[in-house]
Design goal:
mainly alpha, Tetracycline Repressor, domain 2, 2 domains, 16 helices, 0% strand
Length: 301
């Protein structure tokens, strides 16, 4: 069921700088930018340092655009969720149209600059990333199916491909492997959050897995994805993008990820789900940091 009532009249004031920053979801953006940077660093070829900085900025701005448009569209459900009710629009600090205009300008600008300064393959992938997050995830899937995160999570998996294409100008199996790691990581990461925020999602009418299928089924799916993710994280090694040190470390981190999911299964409280959510962020960061370290070590050898 879709919730879209008109918001109560509010004396909107011009948004402060901090609110524009919040619109861009900086915590989400930081991980997106980092994975995009890793894709750029791993790609074969050379990109002038100035253009590399431009490419990373475009990825960051594109991610911020997606966040701003998402907040504009979800302003009604954000207003009833404890986790999101203090966002700029539901809190009455910014008019919806102001947020939408900001997001659209950022989206168009980031894609145009990426295309003109770097290359149009990277620009097309960036445009696809923004469009997928806004139209496929936010507007189509999020309020209609518990598979919203499974399918919609692809939006967050594109940045390494964008970074890779910025250097190489193409899409390769290795860049798709980086995409696949984040794609497989996204469902258990968000389901861990949804387990201890299920009341919020239920009030907002968002059909997250714990709300629709229950906690037990969600926990089972988290274990399945954690196990399936193990071989996916080893793909960079088998494709020659990373070395043995990365493979060993990735396997160890993945084993801990599986263990965390198993602990969630046996825990009748929210403690293990909260711990897994926190670890999942660290896990993805460490995986991509290991890829960087492995590449740096290989270049230095």
């Amino acid at each position: 069921m879709e919730i879209r009532p008109a918001l109560a009249p509010t004396a909107f004031v011009e948004g402060a700088v901090s609110d524009y920053v919040r619109l861009m979801k900086p915590r989400v953006m930081s991980l997106v930018v980092f994975t995009g940077f890793v894709g750029l660093a791993l790609a074969p070829g050379h990109l002038h340092p100035v253009l590399a900085v431009v490419a990373i900025l475009c990825i960051a701005v594109g991610a911020g655009a997606s966040g701003a448009i998402n907040m504009w569209y979800d302003r009604d459900i954000d207003a009833v969720m404890a986790r999101t009710k203090d966002r700029p629009i539901p809190a009455g600090r910014m008019a919806p149209g102001e947020a939408l205009g900001f997001g659209v300008v950022l989206a168009v600008g980031s894609v145009a600059v990426m295309g003109l300064a770097v290359n149009w393959v990277a620009a097309a992938l960036l445009a696809l990333t923004i469009a997928f997050y806004v139209f496929v995830y936010t507007m189509w899937l999020k309020r209609r199916t518990p598979q919203n995160i499974v399918i919609g999570g692809a939006a967050g998996a594109f940045p390494p491909m964008v970074g890779w294409a910025a250097v190489s100008g193409d899409i390769t199996l290795a860049s798709v492997a980086l995409f696949a790691i984040i794609f497989m990581w996204t469902p258990p990461h968000f389901w861990a959050l949804a387990l201890y925020r299920s009341g919020d999602y239920a009030r907002a009418g968002v059909p997250m897995m714990p709300v629709v299928a229950g906690a037990r089924e969600t926990k089972k799916q988290m274990i399945v994805y954690a196990v399936l993710m193990l071989p996916v994280t080893l793909a960079p090694y088998f494709l020659g993008v990373a070395g043995l040190a990365y493979a060993v470390a990735a396997a160890a981190l993945g084993a801990v990820f599986v263990l965390a999911a198993i602990l969630v299964w046996f825990d009748k409280t929210d403690r293990s789900a909260k711990r897994m959510f926190g670890y999942s962020i660290l896990y993805l960061f460490l995986l991509f940091a290991l890829l960087l370290v492995d590449r740096a070590a290989g270049l230095a050898a």
